[in-house]
Design goal:
CATH architecture: 3-Layer(bab) Sandwich
Number of domains: 1
Structural class: alpha+beta
Distance between the termini: 78 Å
Number of helices: 4
Oligomer: single chain
């Protein structure tokens, strides 16, 4: 029994070299796994943010069809704001109790919507002939109606109007939702059907402002 205990006591432990080697392997695995996980998370977030914009494009088309009124969707190039408002003047009251960005105002089908991308995201304008800042437009507070932040929105430079008409068709247009990595998803509005398609994640066509 004493001999067995003596042998057990002499059992060698891990050497310093073995411990350092194990740490090096763990560090290497971490260097591979962590960046991949972060990239997947960022890609997922970009997809989520883009889906919100795509949904609002579809909602703008629905408003035009249901209301029998031409609607416009606009976004802020190199900025975060977007709106969906009637292109034609309508005669209908507004709900003055709405507040905050992302609020919808108006009664019935003649509504207005203002939204904002999260911090770190932006819009890029990709349609032909829109590269120059001269292609942007400002809107009056009257056109923005009773949106709670109409005064602030009126001071922004907006993209050309993406028009949706009551027959379901729209104006052809393409733009991107991009993140801080200069990765983007491009949204394309098809004129004939008014449907919106999107690409897989690509490199943004414009660098960060």
């Amino acid at each position: 029994m004493k001999r067995l205990r003596f042998r057990a006591a002499l059992r060698p432990g891990y050497t310093l070299i073995e411990l350092l080697l194990a740490l090096a392997v763990l560090a290497m695995l971490g260097g591979i796994v962590v960046p991949s996980a972060l990239r997947l998370h960022a890609d997922s977030r970009l997809s989520e943010v883009t889906e919100v914009v795509r949904y609002q494009l579809g909602s703008t088309r629905s408003r035009a069809i249901e209301g029998g009124l031409v609607y416009q969707f606009r976004f802020e190039p190199k900025g975060r704001n977007f709106i969906a408002i009637p292109f034609e003047r309508e005669f209908e009251g507004s709900d003055l109790t709405s507040s905050g960005s992302g609020a919808t105002t108006g009664l019935g089908v003649f509504t207005r919507y203002a939204g904002e991308l999260p911090a770190g995201f932006r819009f890029n304008d990709c349609s032909p002939g829109t590269a120059s800042t001269q292609s942007t437009q400002q809107l009056s507070e009257d056109a923005l109606g009773e949106l709670p932040n109409a005064q602030d929105l009126a001071g922004l430079a907006w993209s050309q109007a993406i028009l949706f008409v009551p027959d379901g068709s729209a104006a052809d247009y393409a733009f991107e939702v991009a993140d801080g990595r200069d990765q983007a998803i491009r949204l394309e509005v098809r004129g004939l059907t008014g449907a919106t398609t999107q690409t897989r994640i690509i490199t943004a066509t414009e660098s960060s402002p």
